[in-house]
Amino acid sequence: MFGFVKRKIEKKLHNQQLLLKAQRLELIEDFTQTIDELKDEDTNAQLVVGHGVNMANSFFIQKFQSISVFQSISVFKQKDYIKKLEIMETKLRKQDFLLAQGFGLFRLWLVVLAWNDTELIQLINTELEWISKHGLPLSNPVEYMKEISKQEE
Fold first, then answer.
1. Which of 41, 77, 122, 138 is close enough to 45 for a disulfide, judged by CB 3.0 to 4.6 Å?
2. Are the C-beta atoms of 78 and 70 separated by less than 8 Å?
3. If DSSP codes are grouped into helix, strand and coil, which group holds residue 153?
């Protein structure tokens, strides 16, 4: 009887591992495609996307102060923050697709941080650093988001 339960658990774990591998491959494909397309865009588009990355990073730093703090919180809280960022990305998409794209790239980085996938973290870090340099630093992202919300009304 215990052999049956053990095999059932092993099968479930195997299926979960396959799902994670598929999600990882999909994330790599989406991220790489977006970056490749962005590298073909003009500098104005790169500036706006970089600005979105910098804005999302400013929110992240205000909330967590560091990567290690984010990685030390529960998976539930990590997912909750990622979901909130996704909601902000969706709101931004109605106003400025490229700015929202920067949020999306940053959100993918957070997903990889939550997975603690060092190989993907390095890959995404390199590309986010590149696009972030094209964007403008943001002194007060909260005020900017308030302006975006006012424009939606």
1. 41
2. yes
3. coil
Q: Compute the distance between CA of residue 109 and CA of residue 122 in angstroms, rounded to an integer.
A: 10
Domain ranges of the chain: 2-152
Closest CA to 71 of 110, 106, 128: 110
CB 99 within 8 A of CB 50: no
pTM: 0.77
Quote the CA–CA distance of 14 and 19 in Å, as a whole number. 9
Residue type (1 letter), 1: M
- Taking every pair of Cα atoms in the chain, the longest distance, rounded to a whole number of angstroms, is 65
pLDDT digits (tens, 9 = 90+) for 93-148: 998 999 999 999 999 999 989 988 888 888 888 998 998 888 876 555 555 555 54
- The CA-to-CA distance between both ends of the chain, in Å, stands at 62
